[in-house]
């Protein structure tokens, strides 16, 4: 019975590590996605200024 308890603890730790990794990857993806959106919006704004189209 003690072995089962050890296995459950190991499984819980592994599950926590996997969830932590998934959350870290998700936050990194969201961060990169936000940067890409910022850059594209800046580029679009510059293009609009260059072409004389106002987006006020």
Q: What report would you give on this structure?
A:
- This protein is an all-alpha fold and 56 residues long.
- Helices cover 89% and strands 0% of the residues.
- The chain is built from 1 helix and no strands.
- The mean pLDDT is 87.
Tell me the fraction of residues in β-strands, as a range: under 5%
Radius of gyration, CA atoms, in whole angstroms: 23 Å
Give the terminus-to-terminus CA distance. Answer: 70 Å
Tell how many strands the DSSP assignment holds: 0
Task: Please report the number of helical segments.
Answer: 1
Poorly predicted parts: none
Largest sheet: none
Instruction: Please state the average pLDDT score.
Output: 87
Oligomer: single chain
Helix content: over 70%
Order of helices and strands: H
What does this entry show, briefly?
With 56 residues, this protein is mainly α. 89% of the residues lie in helices and 0% in strands.
List the helices and strands and how they pair.
Elements: H1 2-51
Task: List its salient traits.
56 residues; mainly alpha; rod-shaped
């Amino acid at each position: 019975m003690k072995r089962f308890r050890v296995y459950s603890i190991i499984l819980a730790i592994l599950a926590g590590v996997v969830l932590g990794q998934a959350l870290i990857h998700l936050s990194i993806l969201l961060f990169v996605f936000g940067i890409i959106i910022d850059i594209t919006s800046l580029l679009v704004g510059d293009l609009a200024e260059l072409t004389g189209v106002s987006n006020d």
